Amino acid sequence: xxxxxxxxxxxxxxxxxxxxxxxxxxxxxxxxxxxxxxxxxxxxxxxxxxxxxxxxxxxxxxxxxxxxxxxxxxxxxxxxxxxxxxxxxxxxxxxxxxxxxxxxxxxxxxxxxxxxxxxxxxxxxxxxxxxxxxxxxxxxxxxxxxxxxxxxxxxxxxxxxxxxxxxxxxxxxxxxxxxxxxxxxxxxxxxxxxxxxxxxxxxxxxxxxxxxxxxxxxxxxxxxxxxxxxxxxxxxxxxxxxxxxxxxxxxxxxxxxxxxxxxxxxxxxxxxxxxxxxxxxxxxxxxxxxxxxxxxxxxxxxxxxxxxxxxxxxxxxxxxxxxxxxxxxxxxxxxxxxxxxxxxxxxxxxxxxxxxxxxxxxxxxxxxxxxxxxxxxxxxxxxxxxxxxxxxxxxxxxxxxxxxxxxxxxxxxxxxxxxxxxxxxxxxxxxxxxxxxxxxxxxxxxxxxxxxxxxxxxxxxxxxxxxxxxxxxxxxxxxxxxxxxxxxxxxx
Length: 492
Prior knowledge:
Helix content is about 50%, strand content about 15%. With about 500 residues, it is α+β, with helices and mostly antiparallel strands. The chain has three domains: about 5-80, no CATH class; about 85-215, Beta-Lactamase; about 300-460, Histidine kinase-like ATPase, C-terminal domain (Heat Shock Protein 90). The longest helix is centred in the middle third of the chain and has 50 residues, at about 210-260.
């Protein structure tokens, strides 16, 4: 070895090339000790050469160079094996300033680090959460889920979040334990070299008690809305049944008087009888709509699917609605092809759909206006469209189509009569047939309502689902009672 200092220069450059600027004093003692031992082992052959009479200066230089190389190697190994102190301190400071509490678990699920915010959150000192302290604060009903979530994360599962209750200490002596709702997010921290070995887990705690309180309040409000809806439906069903029987008598006797069955009436009395009959029919229609709405809401409106021709549906509906528009000089124009496919559906329900669409169009049209009815085949659907040139609706109202008791002019001083149930019933019956309801409207211009019904009928005989916006929960016993009462009323 003629120039041992050249070797020292190369080794020092390699050793210093990967060392951080502030890591010179961070080398671990164990790697240095091992490196010095290796250097002494390397220097032994050189000592033998010295005993054999070799030149002293080259041997001493070689020993010094070997020791220096070993020291530099040990220094670099120690620095690379130890994380920089500044980085560790930065991570700890970040954990202390986070909004949530940070917890580090070992592979066994035992906390090894707990941020100060965890102690503040649970009203205790930080060291009280070490070891099993945190686990003992978990509500007994939530402990299995807590253990499983940490175990899954330690075994390399994807990051997950669970909700659990943790006990919080109170300053009042003798006070009962108070539990906070906590959201715990867990993720594997370090991947172990062995695929099957557990790893450390990082957890973040967040207080979600306020959110849980809001959810409870929302659930309470929903339950109150359900109860109110059920009470309303029971009221409507009961009142409807009680009103329909005397109304049938009023309408029947007034019609008999108008036709002179009980004797000839004077013109004035005949006019009065006509008013009674028309008012009775109107009130009876309202009662029938209320009963239909109650059945639709309850999900008890059954489809009686059968094959029928659309032409058989149109003529009776036109005759009924033309009477409404005759006094106001409103004409109904039709555009109906001679040949239309027969459809499968509930003929009575489809007739009610068409009557409601036509009566709405006539009701909201101006005097002397016209209403158009068109039917056409559209793929596997039958398109029934009714167009009027009436008051129209704003976009916000169109989006709310189907809500019970909604009218386009929904004010105390509204000009148009009606319950606002027509389109609600139409929407429910169309959905029952697995069809679609489309509305195009412009204020002051008019409205076009299109109903698309499948020609082959619904995929299965079905009942109407509960109307979601009423938050109604079914009570089968009450609904069966309503239906039984209604059947008895019809039988009478």
